[in-house]
Design a protein that fits this description.
258 residues, mainly alpha, 9 helices, 60% helix, 0% strand, disordered N terminus
């Protein structure tokens, strides 16, 4: 449930710090029913304590998983929430060694800019993209056409490839941090969780080929896997926080006695 004046799709707070307390007072927790169990309310409380935006997205996701109202719009909403939570939570929890977020949009814009700059030599992009070897079988990939390419375009294309590869690598590191609590790309559970993320990502963009609504049981299995990971990370964070606070309390007590 979203408070008045709050954008459910707004980005989460800056990494490592709770969201500013600018939101309206929250309504009481959702009542216990078939979808809202004690475990889910406990996880919601923990997420809200760390970051109200992430907690609010989790609340929307749980509401969207109600089997009595299962529909494609609800699945799309859940998928968006899962994507944002999984991408932001490792940063919000301050897990060490996380890479910065990568973005290929700037590199893509640079390719377009350079192509326009050499448009007289290269021709229109749509025409160049459609060129194929007429002798090739229809199911075969388009043949490469040899042409002189400006070095500036090669450099722009290379920068895009670098950004894309870096983005994929960084996404794997963030996934590993979410699953294991540390930057890790090799733990066997990471590959399992990747399949869950891929399931939800398949329903994030409506401009992709239309997919049929999966059985609720299939989506529930993936969603519960997400919840298991979230619960582990949040509990680990608060246990670590409690340990640090205990150490500081002892240190402060000794300082006062000296």
């Amino acid at each position: 449930m979203t408070e008045e004046g709050t954008d459910p799709h707004s980005p989460a707070s800056s990494p490592g710090a709770p969201s500013p307390e600018t939101q309206q007072p929250r309504e009481p927790n959702p009542p216990l029913n078939g979808i809202w169990t004690l475990e889910r309310q406990s996880l919601l409380d923990a997420l809200l304590k760390r970051d109200p935006t992430i907690g609010g997205l989790y609340e929307l996701a749980v509401d969207g998983m109600d089997p009595a109202r299962w529909s494609m719009p609800r699945l799309v909403t859940v998928a968006h929430c899962v994507r944002e939570i999984c991408g932001a939570l490792p940063h919000i929890l301050g897990i060490g060694g996380l890479p910065p977020r990568s973005d290929t949009s700037a590199a893509g814009h640079e390719i377009s800019r350079v192509w326009d700059l050499y448009g007289d030599q290269l021709g229109r992009p749509a025409v160049a993209a459609a060129i194929a070897d007429d002798a090739a079988e229809p199911e075969q990939p388009k043949a490469l056409v040899t042409r002189n390419v400006p070095s500036a375009l090669v450099a722009a294309a290379a920068a895009y490839v670098v950004a894309d590869v870096e983005g994929s690598r960084n996404a794997r590191k963030v996934r590993g941090a979410l699953v294991t609590g540390a930057v890790n790309e090799t733990h066997p559970n990471i590959a399992t969780f990747a399949r869950t993320q891929e399931f939800f990502m398949g329903y994030v963009h409506l401009d992709r080929p239309v997919r049929s609504l999966p059985p609720h049981s299939a989506a529930r299995a993936h969603f519960e896997r997400v919840e298991t990971v979230l619960r582990a990370r949040v509990e680990q964070f608060f246990k670590s926080l409690a340990a640090v606070e205990a150490i500081l309390a002892v240190a402060n007590r000794k300082k006062g006695e000296s």
